[in-house]
Amino acid sequence: MRSWSSPAVPTGVRDRFGDGPAVAVFDTRTGAVETTKPGQTARLYVCGITPYDATHLGHALTYVTFDLLHRAWQAAGHDVRYVQNVTDVDDPLLTRADETGIDWVELAERETQLFREDMASLAVLPPDVYAGAVESVPLIVELIEVLQRRGAVYQVDDDLYFEIATDPAFGRVGNLDRAAELALFTERGGDPDRPGKRDPIDCLVWQQQRPGEPAWKTVLGTGRPGWHVECAAIARTYLGTAFDVQGGGSDLVFPHHEMCASEAHVAYPDVEFAMAYVHVGMLQYEGHKMSKSRGNLVLVSGLRADGVDPRAIRLGLLSHHYRECWEWSDQTLDEARDRLARWETALGRGGPDPVETVHAVRSALADDLDAVGALRAIDDWASRSGGDAAANTTANARVIADLASSSLGLTLSSVT
């Protein structure tokens, strides 16, 4: 599956100031901010969309957050190998196709293309591998076969389930108690009450074909894969083991990331799946988590259609720390527009020495992706532009413009 076009990333800041600091992120598994330790190439997996509806700002917040990580690693001198999936066959997609009368393949292709356009407009660096579930069926089947050989898969009717009891360390990611796990499994699409399951939390890895649904003929039978094993297979295939970060929204901690880690650990017990698990807080709107099921959505494409500058959307998303749960409002967008205008006005005047600002922005982003601190540092630089005329130069302004573009994904104008 093709990705989207990559925005330019200026190298002027690295050329002048060298590599930035090592990057630390909050690891859900350890409950602490941990310094990432990639090799020359940092490896990142972020769970992608199920393309049955348009990209809302909650999605955008997740992908903009991991774009900051991507850019911070680049600033620290690393190459980045980034993999993202698309769950282009799943129950929500098939349900929406039935409701609308649109072929499920057509619906998935349409919404995936809209997602690409939204990500390109927000200057999100594209993944190196953008892998759909449909094209990845052979990889997923291969992982399920490994789990079968480990004795970790059993049959319920004609479906196959992963048995969590085969993983002594199950629960390592979320560190939740049993009651919380069961509640979240039930709430987030699980089937705890299905007769024949050995544990209510055991998860589906292969579903035999249902009447009228798509299916693939494999050694496992004619059917389609479960969601968790999809990401486990794609991540391991394209990133290898012990990759640096698995990321997504905080609603993926359990069961999704827990199951991915567990399935991979049972299949390949001598290696880690991911070294850190990083999760983004939930964006709210009208008093509730922004979600397709509730319908309280602010769509990126809708804002763009209304003429909103995508840079202001991105700047609004960066106005809170990524782990925070917060409420999007019209005021968020107004404040982002005002900030963008202040910065561009300051650039047009020239500005003071950028060294302190470069250090502050890079240090903030390396410290658990503190975009709020990074924005504040550029605010401070902008407030000092135009003061001492002799110290304000266009060359200094160009450094700040390069910094905003390379580190924050914000292309600024008004530098003459």
Please supply descriptive tags for the structure shown above.
416 residues; alpha/beta; five-stranded parallel β-sheet; five-stranded antiparallel β-sheet; 14 helices; globular
- The DSSP helix count reads 14
Task: Indicate the structural class.
Answer: alpha/beta
Contiguous runs where pLDDT drops below 50 for at least 5 residues = none
- Round the mean pLDDT to the nearest integer and report it: 95
Q: What is the string of SSEs from the N terminus onward? A: HEEEHEHHEHEEHEEEHEHEEEHHEHHHH
Could you state the oligomeric state of the chains shown?
single chain
Strand order of the largest sheet: 5-4-3-11-12
Distance between the termini: 40 Å
**Helix proportion:** 40-55%
Shape: globular
Short note summarizing the structure:
The protein is α/β, with parallel strands linked by helices and 416 residues long. The protein has helices spanning 12-17, 57-75, 91-100, 104-121, 137-149, 178-187, 227-239, 253-267, 300-305, 310-317, 330-348, 355-366, 371-384, 394-408; strands at 24-27, 32-35, 41-46, 79-86, 129-132, 153-156, 159-162, 203-208, 216-218, 221-225, 245-249, 277-280, 283-285, 288-289, 326-327.
